[in-house]
Amino acid sequence: MKLYSTNNPSLRVSFQEAVFNSMPQDKGLYMPEVIPQLEKEFIDQLEQYSLPEIAYQIASTLLKDEIPEADLKALIDDAVNFEAPVVKLNEQTFVLELFHGPSLAFKDFGARFMSRVMAYFLKDGEQLLDVLVATSGDTGGAVALGFLGVPNTRVTILFPKGKVSEVQRLQLTTNGKNIRAIAVDGTFDDCQALVKQAFADDELNGKFRLTSANSINIARLIPQTFYYFNAYAQLKRQGLEKVVFAVPSGNFGNIGAGLLAYKMGLPVHRFIAATNANDTVPRFLETGIYEAKPSVQTYANAMDVGAPSNWVRIMDLFNQDRDTINQLVKAYHFTDEETLAAIKEIFERFNYVACPHTAIAWLATKAYATENPTDDSVKVFLSTAHACKFPEVFPPEIKEKIELPEQVKSLNNNLEVYDELGKDFESFKSYLFDK
């Protein structure tokens, strides 16, 4: 598997190099030189395969000979050891639950796969691998658990101070060992900017072996394709083959993975990009003007991204052709007030508790169905996080229905440790050198 930079199509690096470098020096993002097509027979018989079997077939098709067959199978069986069920709400509406992993968020797919790929490639005696990650809520917890105790690695997580939920913060700050957390006095965009500046800094790169665990890393994107194929397999078992996926979208890695799956042969009718008040992409798709703005805080904090990094990958997938993207992707954005109302409506109609991100995806599903009354496809909206992570948004009658997983109950028993920094790069750079 060879990859190039979105800023330099002539560049070629191996998968291993792309995983450890995370982002090219030209500040583009790595993309596969060729997007291979899965065998038609495999797609036609997808319902016969389990999630790990599907994951192996996709990974081996993409990675080619980068990891031997037996090692790749073992890696995937270890990383993807939880389910992602499609739950039926009514005849036309389903929810894809992606929160059954250790950190209770969809980010577990990418973080666990990536951490095991890095551990596989790391050799004894090599320089310590410093993993930098910015999080708006869920990425950090998934990365922390994915890398916890992995030899020869150190993870530094930057999160916006006061802008993540209590459960999310505890998942970042109570791990110890090789995981450390920094509360940044700013937004997620500020955290992400610090990580990107670190990768571009010659002095830091001369001292440390830096890589990223954000969705800018290609090893995060690949495993997120797994659950789209697996969801389609589950629907096929019910005789349903025409599907629209509605995806809560912040940094646009999640829907980017869905579009990569589509390019590999997954027969998706359309995608819906659902955003909150941070509506950079919906505005671009409507007007043709890409204007990133500072992110604003919402109840759906994992989507509070004003300058989504992965959008350049999506544009690259479609040769910078906005019109082609508009034929496949419909985008909507919603307010906090609409989100809270949706949480109540989903509970009243389906007796289902949805987190704010999930509620926004459902709102987009509902809007799409209203605009396209003759579209007979089933609508699958992605539930990206467990509702227990956002207790402050639920009214009492819904909050009491949330069952706390064991890993959440134990969080308050752990010692919380984190540092605090401003959003200026020099402070972060000094922190890395001093610590």
Report on the structure:
The protein is an alpha/beta fold. The protein is built from 20 helices and 14 strands. The strands form three sheets. A six-stranded mixed beta sheet has the order 4-5-13-10-11-12, sandwiched between helices. Helix 12 runs parallel beside helix 14 (about 310-315).
CATH architecture of one domain: 3-Layer(aba) Sandwich
Beta-strand residue percentage: 15-25%
Through-space gap between termini: 36 Å
Reported by name, the CATH topology of one domain is Rossmann fold
Shape: globular
Number of helices: 20
**Text of the CATH class of one domain:** Alpha Beta
Q: Could you tell me the radius of gyration in angstroms?
A: 20 Å
User: What oligomeric arrangement do these chains adopt?
Assistant: single chain
Widest sheet: strand ordering? 4-5-13-10-11-12
Largest sheet data: 6 strands, mixed
Q: Which bin fits the share of residues in helices?
A: 40-55%
**Mean pLDDT reading:** 94
Q: Tell how many strands the DSSP assignment holds.
A: 14
Pick out the low-confidence regions. none
Structural class: alpha/beta
